[in-house]
């Protein structure tokens, strides 16, 4: 970027590993920013210019409420520091290495050399500040479902896919490389759309995937609707997402903690969908729904 180098504020929140995922979700929702899970707890970054002056009050209130609702006996403490953009960029690059997912996918950052076998599907990703490198369980669950022919049983081979909350674009890219002819990727974050567009260019998919800034309308139907977001937004979007799935299609939801799955399931069963598959990785689960008339 031209001009002055940006300054970033980094906040580190110390917590036990068993609550890190759930706390990360709450913090991400409260501040509208990506959150990273570290060995000591969670970490988030803010651009210094947009750094809210009353963030300490918001964070103190959030942590206090989280401790009470989760009945924690240990304190939740935090610290913060200001860093230059180049230091921020290089720090997360150190942690992002090529990763094999499933049998064929290899997810690699653009700056690494990849050793791939015949038949491998290599996805090159420069995530910027958008979620999705394949390292998180929720993204891996989605990639594995796509690769393993999770669409078997739908009748004709699936042709179209909607990726809701595309982030870095990794799932839309995977779908396109697997042969989906019509792929639409949407996100409400303009920066995510920019990152996804660049990643599609890197993978030679410019023009093959349609990108949309905003929310799902439910006006078009797709053979596969994939939404790797969070439980609460997924529950709120149940009606719209159900309208986006073709009659014989599959709705694939991820970003759901195992203890949240029953709430999500009930919301979608209320839309005439039936849970037909469930996959679990650690504390996270992926749920696959189909319309009852189509599920044998």
Lay out the secondary structure.
Layout: E1 7-14, H1 17-31, E2 35-37, E3 41-47, H2 55-70, E4 77-84, H3 85-95, E5 99-101, E6 105-109, E7 121-125, H4 137-147, E8 160-164, H5 170-178, E9 182-187, H6 190-202, E10 209-213, E11 222-228, H7 231-236, H8 238-243, E12 245-257, H9 261-269, E13 273-281, E14 284-291
Parallel strand pairs: 6-7, 8-9, 8-11, 9-10, 11-12
Antiparallel strand pairs: 1-3, 1-4, 2-3, 5-6, 12-14, 13-14
Please characterize this protein's 3D structure.
The chain has two domains: about 5-90, Alpha-Beta Plaits; about 135-295, Vaccinia Virus protein VP39 (Rossmann fold). It contains nine helices and 14 strands. The chain has helices at about 15-30, 55-70, 85-95, 135-145, 170-180, 190-200, 230-235, 240-245, 260-270, and strands spanning about 5-15, 35, 40-45, 75-85, 100, 105-110, 120-125, 160-165, 180-185, 210-215, 220-230, 245-255, 275-280, 285-290. It has a seven-stranded mixed sheet with strand order 10-9-8-11-12-14-13, with helices on both faces. Helix 5 links the parallel strand 8 (about 160-165) and strand 9. The model has no long low-confidence stretch (mean pLDDT about 85).
Task: Give a brief description.
By secondary structure, this protein is of the alpha/beta class. It folds into two domains: 7-92, Alpha-Beta Plaits (2-Layer Sandwich); 136-294, Vaccinia Virus protein VP39 (Rossmann fold, 3-Layer(aba) Sandwich). It has nine helices and 14 strands.
